Amino acid sequence: MYKVLIIDDDVPMLKYLKQLVDWNALDLQIVADTYSSVKALRLFDELRPDLVVSDIGLPQMDGLELASEMLRRRPEVRVIFLTCHEDFHYAQKALKLSVDDYLIKDELTAEQLAQSLEKSVRLLRAAKAQTEQLTYREDWSRHANVLRDSFFKQLLRGGDTAYLTDSAARLGLVWDKPSFLLALGYVSYYDVLSRYAHKDLPLIRYGVANIAAELAGEFEGITTFNDGEGLAVLLNYRPSLKWNAQEHLLAFLAKLQAKCKEFLGVGTTFFASSSADKLAVTEIGAAHRRMAGERYVAFYTEHPVTVLPAAGLPQAYHPGAGGFEQEYAELSQAVRDHDEALLEKALAGIRRSALELRPEPASFVHQCADRLRLVELQYRAFSGETLYACLQQTLTLGDALGLMGLKLRQIMNGRRLGEPQASKEPKLQTIDQYIAQHLAETITSIDIATHLYLNPSYFSRYFKKLSGENFTDYVHRYKMKIAADLLEKTKDSIEVVALRCGYSDRTYFSKVFKKYIGVTPGEYKSRSGVM
For strand 231-237 and strand 179-187, is the pairing parallel, antiparallel, or unpaired? Predict the structure, then answer.
């Protein structure tokens, strides 16, 4: 049964309402009644009714104000108004609150009340069914991801064709073509560590996997899997002179890279098998192992996507990793003198020499790490192993030098990895404070311009120059960071978090959240371990 709270300052009216209809027959139970709006709020919080039947003309706080506060606290509650006032402006205010009905006391009949209550019950049942369906979809999505991960592991282990294709079909993957192309992708560690904390790396990878899975729906034959440390992309196709499978796969990867850069701010590197391979489903595991083992094949090419010939690329590297002594000395001097220009010059010199000499990548990366440790030791700027662990896994020269520069700048500025950046420009601090104070409201650039006593037209140009992005993106991004923190650290539902951040429409909130965080609120809440 659904719980009902009745509020009316006319005590005889309370008794009349309770006797007017058979509440139990309507699947309703009156859990409390009161003549006081103040007491009504306390009962509302304690009993959490599903439906409130309230008089408008209450003392202290009128019914419109009371209902508004109740809806703010629990947007899902249904409201029916009773009043002696026939003036239409009351009805107008009630309609703005999205209440279920507005009834005149003097004209009230059992039939009228029953019809209004039945309408509220229908809406309550529909909302419950929608919530249950959404919960089911979220649960299925979580289970589907586990099943996909399990299937991918089986795919890498191998098996006969019928077993693998049947297993794929049970997950809704239609692999009815004879050949496959495989691509493996990895995020830029420099992009991640320069924008996020290291602990966010798994979430960033998960975000890339979600973007890829959504984009795959636009490209025929594409299936994506979360590969632990990266992303695996499979194209199932039938060889044809009229259709170029390789171009199709590369078009998907290019669009995926653009979306990852746009939504997450991180670059990605991909290695793709050649169309000459024409992999059978039983050969995917061996191809995956071969490509993963050739992780340095594109270290010096610096292309976002490298196509590997069937036999692999020749490993034409210079033995050892010497020849950078002058540049390393300049790096140390740059840190000592806080000379940003000299730091850039030394890193550019290492890049030129590395591209010319092509030292063996693993040795080169190891030497970079050793030089960083020497500088740390020299300036007693120890900050743990986080960056070094990432440096050892870099797959491109640009990523390795990016991390090296990031570390040296942290030493130069006396900051540890993961410490907050320098304070924001004072105007941005003021804007952040305004957004935080009006979090549950829709904030426009006009509001901020007025707050700062600036012309709105000038403010838009000024803000873009100040922050590097337009005002709408800035507000959304700021609010989504707060929303993510609320989802992770509180037990609030997604709907409540959305309302606290000023989004009355859950669907729109989820769309904005996924754009700036990379996953849906439900997925983020699940991965954060908050139920």
Answer: antiparallel
Neighbours of 340 (CB within 10 A): 11
Output the pLDDT for position 421.
41
Q: Which residues contact 449 (CB under 8 A, 6 or more apart)?
A: 455, 456, 458, 459
DSSP letter at 159? -
The pLDDT assigned to 410 comes to 85
Please count the other Cβ atoms lying within 10 Å of the Cβ belonging to residue 300.
20
User: 354 exposed, middle or buried (CB, 10 Å; 0-12, 13-18, 19+)?
Assistant: buried
Which residues, at least 6 apart from 297, have a Cβ–Cβ distance to it below 8 Å? 271, 306, 308, 312, 313, 315
Is the pTM higher than 0.85? The answer reads no
Contacts (Cβ under 8 Å, ≥6 apart) of 174: 168
Cα separation of 177 and 3, whole Å?
56
Using CA atoms, how far apart are residues 463 and 460, in angstroms rounded to an integer? 5
Q: For residue 425, what pLDDT is reported? A: 65
Q: Which amino acid is at 329?
A: A
DSSP state of 176: -
Tell me how far apart the alpha carbons of residues 250 and 305 are, in angstroms, rounded to a whole number.
8
pLDDT of residue 527: 63
Would you state the pLDDT for residue 422?
A: 43
Tokens 């636009």 label which residue?
Answer: 218
Question: What is the three-class DSSP state of 186?
Answer: strand
* pLDDT (0 to 100) of residue 225: 94
Number of neighbouring beta carbons within 10 Å of residue 465:
8
pLDDT (0 to 100) of residue 344: 93
Both tokens of residue 497?
Answer: 């978090």
Whether residue 361 contacts residue 316, with contact meaning beta carbons closer than 8 Å, is answered with no
CA-closest candidate to residue 74, choices 525, 523, 500, 509: 500
**DSSP letters of 447-506?**
HHHHHTT--HHHHHHHHHHHHSS-HHHHHHHHHHHHHHHHHHHS---HHHHHHHTT---H
Token pair belonging to 232:
């695996």
User: Tell me, what DSSP letter sits at residue 19?
Assistant: H
CA distance 270 to 273: 10
Q: Which DSSP category does 322 fall into?
A: -
Integer Cα distance of 208 and 152 in angstroms: 17
Residues of the chain with pLDDT under 50: 87-88, 312-313, 415-423, 530-531
